[in-house]
Here is the input.
Amino acid sequence: MSLIDSTYFVREINLPGNVLSGALADIQPYIDQYERLALINLLGYPLYKDLIANPTDTRWVRLIEGHEYEIDYHGATTTVKWNGLTNTELRSLIAYFVFYYYLKFHATFTSSRGELLANSENAKAFNPGQAMNNAYNFAIDLYGKPNDDLVNPTAYNFLYHFKDDETDGYDGWIFTPLDRQNTFGI
Here is the structure.
């Protein structure tokens, strides 16, 4: 079960659209692998297993499809809109992570002579580091971290807000913090 599909690779994370022979033809294995990794990092393995087993439970529908909730922010009630892991805007932290790893493993190809860079006619090869870095950091912005401003609509803030909800909470939530990186991958 994948939450996203090839339609999420648009705008700044666009992949070649030739479905039969281009990047979108082999994106599904990357979606399967790196969606799983992103969700395990976000939820912890026990909650990831529960999400896979019970995707129609209210708590998972809210996480996947988005949800508005209210917080007390500097003494005033403020509404925060978590857009979800999937949405009509096609902006998903999962897609940005998948794009990052797809480029990471497609910048070169392995041959019997070692790592090679494809030589395209009427094109000049360019280091994908900046596009990778931008995608990864945008994924981190959507993923969130402890100490984010509470009005920032990140996955972390959403899960943290509902972690102790008695009926639809995320009891046992294990969050793995991830950091932004520079173009050197540091």
Summary: Residues 165 and 171 are 8 Å apart (CA to CA). The beta strands are 67-73, 76-82, 109-111, 114-116.
